[in-house]
Specification:
Elements: H1 8-23, H2 33-46, H3 58-71, E1 80-82, E2 89-92, E3 98-100
Antiparallel strand pairs: 1-2, 2-3
């Protein structure tokens, strides 16, 4: 098994250079958006920024939609069916019209 050493010196030097560029205001120019993205990716590689994993709310959404689909009917009188698991979109089984039956609160 071969272990590869992580060379943090290169990443820290790159972080310093990108920080200097941002200090000069180059990231605010029209073609300077790459500097912000690169800075953030280097910070992630060094472990300075930790990403929180997304939470899965599909079971709660599916339970909500099961009740909502039975309460609401299509304009044509057809039954609605959830388009896919974890989605607030329902589709009529007869006329294929789509309805948004819920939303996430922020």
């Amino acid at each position: 098994m071969v272990l590869i050493e992580r060379n943090d010196d290169f990443l820290y030097n790159q972080l310093i250079k990108l920080g200097d560029m941002m200090g000069d205001g180059l990231h605010l120019e029209p073609d300077g958006k790459w500097i912000e993205r690169e800075y953030k990716s280097v910070c992630r590689a060094l472990g300075l920024i930790k990403n929180k994993p997304r939470q899965n709310h599909s079971p709660q959404i599916n339970e909500f939609m099961a009740k909502r689909v039975q309460a609401v009917k299509c304009d044509c009188g057809g039954n609605l069916k959830q388009s896919r698991s974890g989605s607030f979109i329902a589709k009529c089984e007869q006329c294929d019209k789509k309805y948004r039956l819920g939303s996430r609160k922020k």
